[in-house]
Design brief:
Distance between the termini: 25 Å
Number of strands: 12
Shape: globular
Largest sheet: 7 strands, mixed
Number of helices: 7
Strand content: 15-25%
Helix content: 10-25%
Strand order of the largest sheet: 1-3-2-4-9-6-10
Structural class: alpha/beta
Order of helices and strands: EEHEHHEEHEEEEHHEEEH
Protein name: Protein CDI-like
């Protein structure tokens, strides 16, 4: 899988922080804007790797048939993150429908090695019955926890996540992190996975200001969601990305 490295660094030390972004051909613009928003604001070296199902299949790492409830191509392939990072160090997985408004260093600085993973622990039951471009909206415990995860790839428990397990285990086992004890799941402030239509900004309370916006129901790259909340921020970022490509 092709990777892009952002060489910006505040101190010039350490390996790039690996960030795996779920890629779906129907959401190419979302992926590009997510990548651009991360790179633009990063003050540490980062390496961005798209998780592309077609490439994983060619490499023999993914052979699972797509289920009817899978709204994206990376619904299950996301759990290959520790394997793709060679079970080494910390790495992040994030859905492509995110827009980053803050420096990823601020999130990386929250990492605590005592945990196997860290994520925003949403208490979320969507009212909508469809999402994105008409995909069925499913409700399950720990919904949206797996949409942005910091993985302690070298943690012994995460070595369970082999291609065989990711291709054969149930959605419940994977999306609810059932290979882990609850005490091994660390919590990240909700502003790093700010769900449009669910989370709210409280005026003059900076702790509620989003650092990463998650257009979980659908974003402005879909015609039906052009006017969604925070859609203008995404469209501005798209414009800036397109200008940067021309230069």
């Amino acid at each position: 899988m092709s990777a892009e490295i952002n060489g910006m660094s505040s101190n010039g030390h350490g390996k790039p922080f690996k960030i795996f972004i779920g890629y779906d051909p129907s959401e190419d613009a979302a992926y590009e804007v997510c990548r651009f928003s991360l790179q633009k604001r990063a003050s540490i070296p980062i390496e961005i790797i798209p998780i592309k199902q077609s490439e994983l299949r060619k490499r023999g790492l993914y052979w699972r048939e797509r289920g009817k409830l899978e709204s994206t191509e990376f619904s299950f392939s996301r759990f290959l993150t520790p394997y793709l990072a060679n079970y080494d160090g910390w790495a992040m997985f994030v859905d492509c429908d995110f827009l980053y408004l803050a420096d990823i260093k601020d999130l990386r600085d929250l990492i605590d090695d005592k945990y196997a993973i860290m994520c925003v622990q949403h208490d979320y039951a969507p009212k909508e019955t469809t999402k994105m471009d008409g995909a069925v909206q499913t409700v399950y415990p720990r919904k949206n926890w797996s949409s942005m995860v910091l993985y302690n790839c070298g943690h012994p428990k995460n070595k369970i996540l082999t291609p065989e397990v990711v291709n054969n285990e149930t959605g419940a086992f994977l999306h609810r992190f059932q290979w882990l004890d609850d005490s091994e799941i660390g919590e990240v402030p909700f502003v790093w996975n700010f769900l449009v239509g669910h989370n709210k900004v409280v005026e003059n309370d900076k702790s509620t200001f989003p650092k990463a916006i998650h257009y979980t129901l659908g974003g402005p790259w879909f015609e039906a969601w052009k006017d969604c909340e925070f859609g203008d921020l995404w469209l501005n970022e798209l414009e800036e990305y397109q200008k940067s490509e021309k230069n």
